[in-house]
Amino acid sequence: MPRTATIGPAVYKRVNELTAEGKNRTEAFQTVAQERSMNPGTVSANYYRVARGQGGTTMRPKTRARKATTTTPRSRRRATRRRAATQPKTDTDLNTLANQIGDLVQQLVRQVEERDRRIREVLG
User: Fold this and answer.
1) Whole-number Å distance between alpha carbons of 18 and 34
2) Which runs of consecutive H residues, i.e. helices, occur in 4-54?
3) For 15-42, what is each residue's pLDDT tens digit?
4) What does DSSP assign to residue 73?
5) Does residue 8 contact residue 49 with C-beta atoms inside 8 Å?
6) Is the dihedral of CA 84, 90, 96, 100 positive or negative?
7) Residues whose CB falls within 8 Å of the CB of residue 69, separated by 6 or more in sequence, listed in order
8) Distance separating alpha carbons of residues 121 and 124, to the nearest angstrom
9) In 17-120, which ranges are E strands?
10) Count of CB atoms within 10 A of residue 29's CB?
11) What is the pLDDT of residue 2?
12) CB distance 15 to 47 below 8 Å
């Protein structure tokens, strides 16, 4: 049977007492760490673990909600046009690349045939 947690709740209670006296949490974590011969990071981890379990304070402040993006048909058309203008024309690009590859292969074949012809001349 697991034993009852005592350190976390005690740390949580003491940090809350110190913050009620006017200290900020960082100072309270350091004070509790000195009192208990602990690392301030361990104290803060214990504090926030208990706070999360109780639905209390979190480490991160709440962020503002993002502004909703526009979803009007006009704005969607504009966004689509912008994307289309910046994206390459894949069919045209592929055809161009295929033609370039074909030309390079033909050039390579001609060079190999020329090399073979020279080798035959040298060997006689």
Assistant:
1) 13
2) 7-20, 25-36, 40-53
3) 999 999 999 999 999 999 999 999 999 9
4) H
5) yes
6) positive
7) none
8) 5
9) none
10) 24
11) 66
12) yes
Residue 47: alpha-carbon gap to chain centroid? 28
Q: Where are the domains of the chain?
A: 7-53, 89-124
- Do 73 and 55 meet the contact criterion of CB atoms below 8 Å apart? no
- For 55, residues 6+ apart whose C-beta sits below 8 A from its C-beta are none
CB of 18 closer than 8 Å to CB of 32 = yes
What contacts 51, CB < 8 A, 6 or more positions away? 12, 57, 58
How far, in Å, CA of 98 to CA of 92, rounded? 10
Average pLDDT score, the chain: 84
Question: Can you say whether the dihedral through the CA atoms of 52, 56, 59, 64 is positive or negative?
Answer: positive
